[in-house]
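Quick one - inputs below.
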Amino acid sequence: MFDILGSTNRSCDGVSRRNFLRVGGLAVGGLTLPNLLRSEAVAKEAGTSAKRKAVILVWQAGGPSHLDMYDLKPTAPAEYRGEFKPIPTNVSGIEISEHLPLQAAMFDKFSVVRSAFHTNAGHGMGAQWMLTGYQPTIEVNDNIYPSCGSIVAALRGPNEPGMPAYCNVPNRLDLGKAAYLGASYNPFSPDSDPNSQGFQVRNMKLPGNLTLNRLERRQQLLGQVDTIRRDIDTKGDIAGLDKFYHDAFEMVTNEKALRAFDIHKEDPKLREKYGRNDLGQSCLLARRLVESGVTYITVQAGGGWDTHANNFAEQKNRLLPQFDRAVAALVDDLFVRGLQEEVLVMAMGEFGRTPRINPQAGRDHWPGAMSVLFAGGGLKMGQAIGTTDSKAEYPTSKPYTPGCVLSTMYHTLGIDHQHVFYDNGRRPMPVLSEGQPITELVG
Amino acid sequence: MPLSYSQTCVLLATSLAMAFAGEVHAANVRVEPAQVAFRDAFARRQLLVNADGHDATRQARYISRKPEVASVDAGGYIIPRANGTTDVEITLNGQVTVVPVSVTGFESIRSVDFVTEVEPLLSRFGCNSGGCHGKASGQNGFKLSLFGFDTDFDYHTLVSEGRGRRVMVSAPEKSLLLLKGSGAVPHGGGRRLDPNSEPYRLILSWIQSGAPTSAANVPQVVKLKMIPSERVMTTNEQQQLAVLAEYSDGSHRDVTREAQYSTNLDVIAVVSDDGLITANEPTGEAAIMTRYMGQVAVCRVLRPQGSALASLNDFAPRNFIDQLAADKWKKLGLKPSTACDDPTFLRRVTLDLCGRLPTVDESRAFLADMGSDKRDRAIEQLLASPDYPAYFALKWGSILRNSSLAGADRAAYAFHNWLKDMVARNRPYDEFVRGIVAASGEWPDAPAINWFWQSRDDQLHQVTADTAQVFLGLRLQCAKCHHHPYERFTQDDYYGLAGFYTRLGRKSFGEPPPYYTSPNVTLSERHPITGKQIEPKYLDGGLAKLSAEEDPRHALVDWMAKPENPFFSKALVNRLWGHFYGRGLVHQVDDLRETNPPSNPELLDALAKEFRDHKFDMKHMIRLMVQSQTYQLSSEPTDDNRSDVQNFARFYGRRLPAEVAHDAVEQATGFKTNFGNMSANSRAIDLPHERFGSYFLDTFDRPKRVSGCECERSTSATLSQVLLLSNSDEVEQKLQNGNARIAKMFEAKRSTPQMIEELYLAAFSRYPTPAEIFNSANYIGVDTEPRKAVEDLLWSLLNSREFLFTH
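Output:
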């Protein structure tokens, strides 16, 4: 478990590795290494409350079309502007797409950054850049750098013990993994559609024809059988497993954990409000999970955002109505429950889409400008931040990089984005290599 | 010329003997060197004072009788001030030792040299580090080469750019380099340079003399020497280091205060900026590294568990591994754990050689065997079985990126079978490596070309980096873009190795397409610094002059397999050691470098020599390792070795790898899953590539085969693994299935004690103790559903650490 720290080098943050190791040795007694890292990294972020905070990222894999959602250009030539019309929102001066009416009606609870950008138009590389803050040099469909969710898991852990720190719903994200932080920080995922009738979390419900009574008996028997000494390894894996057995047993038996994943307990009317599809129900599940103590959740916003053909039909008939409904319902729900300061909601994909419409009435990959949506998290809402040129090709003011977007998120969690990890080659790797929190949002 | 300090070196060589001459006052104080001769104003000397075998440099008091000739500070560091002679008096516990100091050539005109004197300061003060001006984009418009690898670039940047304000020869003190560095004008990096310090004066002096560029033939640092190079220390003990640089003209210079220091394990020992080591309480070993002008040196610090031992009475060495391991334990005051018992041995060695548990019958037979050589016989049986090549093909296939991606489905099977065949026939390791590195032709004939094909997107660099890491144990990737920060390797070295692959060609048809060696260079990439074609050059050696008919890849393997090659044998024996002992003699197993020393260098050397002497016979090395008493120690620590995590005074337990864990669950439950397109007998360890869908294997982190690093295989614990083992339909079905072990035991109407015995043998490879039989029988006996109670017992065994760990 020490390998994530790269214990052989002095850390650039000046933290003595000795402290890590000494306290790491106490992990058996309950004080875990992540706890220590957490308090250390969080303490460095002065002025931000380190109290309970959580993030829900709605990940629009494929690349959402900024021109058709938050950055419409009604005066651009026809081959750019597309079919959709802007409508006013409840914030004076901000207009968004006519196909996002629910969000438009409550835009005082959102802020959109219209001037995010990067320079890579490949799905894998762009996604890795947006999700890790690091620009990869080769296209691989696996994490070279740790995903932001894994970093949050390593530095903050879960908000409540017995819950996972980092979840992907409904499925594991290809680029959502922990890379050199170690597999313990890979996401936990139900790997099952919460919109389905028989939705349940994998291996968290008692297997068929096993009773709780028998599980408890098994636990007792295990205590008798599993007598091997706990000091036979050198990395603390045995202690880690003991902890996971404790967590797992709690998750399986603890009503609170089971309830969190049991979306069937939700009021059918609320489930309707989120939309009865995988995106809507995943957003609803995400809200249940943050309430129960999960710190970071990535919601996969369905497929189909990669609209190389029939962009407008796809957008207006399926993508935008589902997305509008799910995200509006989620943010509204968080406000109703008074969680708007604690929970940050973000929505983005790996890049925007080409302003110029292609012959198949589609839009292709375009990282030169993209929109990123924020809500809650104690950030300043009701804003449209940054501008792009007349064809939405490039930012004309306040250009923000992936590092800026992520450091804003880390800021809300009280995570120092200069905290240093070590990769497998013992190279010091800060949480982010570039980017500062977006001032318009953090104030 | 700054390097006129050669005399000190001569003095040093004799300093030990000379020091005794100075011991007129006390027999227990030694000062090194016994005398100092400075030949110019820039020479320096760190004194080392030793009392009763312990460093007392910081406890001694120093006085120069003529400080106007040479001054000395509280740390025992002498600086010349004028021509003449003086004595430095060293007082310790009332005893005085005298070191005569002479200074000549003080006034001789010479300018400070940029490359050998200024550039090291830019490194020392972190100016050119990756976080500051050394990063690719520079910092606030000022960019230096990372760690000073490109001195021409840095000179140009400092002297010619920045509108001539960085270095102002007309008004040296107004140079931005000094103003910013000293914080006299605001500097994002803060105050780095004290205006009253030596380094400041050195840079100022360089600018005052016109900021000249270095002469073309300026001597380069070729070697660093650290004094001392090894030290046994007690808690809170300190040791001052002295660092001597040797230059290409044979001269020497004390660079103690110019060099940089770091520790690889500050839990054991830390080091200050001026080379003072302080040992901490935990025991073990640390490597203190010093770096200066691209060269590195290491001082090994030992923090023993107790006092050194004269003998280890209860430990009977089987072979040289045991002798050398024991030598180290004695030095560190470690006593090994006892030998492991028979069932633990059989389970351990079967898992490590064959990637599976012993069968119930194998365990029964082995435990009933009364022969004194039964462990050796078991080893031979396992090594001769088909499971040994199967398991090692999996191991090699993972780090050789054998994947079915990019149309390589059939090629991946072929490469997997090729690996298995090479291991089964125990072909010499150099032949094995040649079959990969020099693979040419179509995949059915040369399936190892899949190694190249799986790196197709970054062909030259991925193959170069993998060659270094997999076969030489060197992580050279850093040196692709800059001088390796922890090694002596330069970009030139990296591109020299890449040079062996610049004539690699591939056809434009087939997946993978045929690979071949062209008589001409096929890759257009140029050397990033020289802009010239990339030429093959041996690491630590010269250019490879190869004709168009010669295959550079064969030349590379020829060089690897030479007896004098310093990397090839060590890399393999260390990789094998890591496999069997849970941690490399060098950790990580593929990160061999001077600054990451082995925990037992004598043992690593002896293993490498044995490997060369036995014609690269892998099976021979494996046999030696698993036969050793060291391998056969118990994993249970004792009070005499509890702190040991790198000297193998006990066996280090570890979690079963993904594929092995999968197969172990199926073997214990007697329920077999079929993998698509594989025969019904195929287990997870038999899978040729990573693209066989399996929630179990993914959850236990089988490698994705996208890296040549063993570190891609994680054996750390996760919540999902625990949920899968303890609470899944998948495992429950294996327990309950009508054709599985428990159902068959009930069909055969076994008695409860018989069933308990079989389950313990199946899962733990040992007989249950009487207490375990009693407890289990009790549990089963009171249950109204005995079948379910027996399932509970097997569930408990599978969820025990004793099951999931090799121990």
